[in-house]
Design a protein that fits this description.
The protein has helices spanning 21-42, 49-68, 77-102, 118-121. By secondary structure, the chain is mainly alpha-helical. The model has no long low-confidence stretch (mean pLDDT 76).
């Protein structure tokens, strides 16, 4: 007779309550509300704050998805804190990147000589042709 405990006990650490569809419906309502808030904020001109607001709301939505759909809410609390902090800092990092990018004017490469590449200089279809260059004077002999 084997008196040793098995090395892996699948159900020993599971101590969360079973949740029904109510949790998922509430999560759906929260995500749809935050999506509507994002869309509504996009119609208001906050300047460079639009990106900040959109990324903040997206970070909150990512945290909600991680907590409920990845079941981090029912896992050890430290795992949920680490995941939430990761999403939060990712959002903050991207927010500062976009704020910095928005403050730069005249973004051109250092080695840009001021000439457009030939494929970019072509006129749009249906646009009027540019005026022709003046003809060179004839040489006198």
């Amino acid at each position: 007779m084997n008196t040793q405990e098995p090395l892996i006990q699948e159900d020993r650490d599971i101590d969360h309550e079973p949740h029904g569809s109510g949790v998922y419906v509430k999560t759906l309502v929260a995500l749809l509300t935050l999506t509507a808030l994002t869309v509504g904020a996009s119609y208001v001109d906050f300047g460079s704050g639009n990106v900040v607001i959109a990324l903040f709301i997206a970070s909150i939505k990512a945290i909600i998805v991680a907590l409920f759909f990845m079941h981090l809410r029912y896992d050890k609390p430290v795992n949920a804190v680490i995941a939430c902090a990761g999403f939060l800092f990712l959002g903050i990092f991207l927010m500062f990147d976009f704020i910095d990018f928005g403050t730069r004017d005249g973004l051109r490469p250092v080695n840009w000589n001021g000439k457009m590449p030939v494929e970019m200089a072509a006129p749009a279809p249906g646009a009027a042709a540019p005026p022709a260059a003046p003809a060179a004077p004839a040489e006198k002999k």
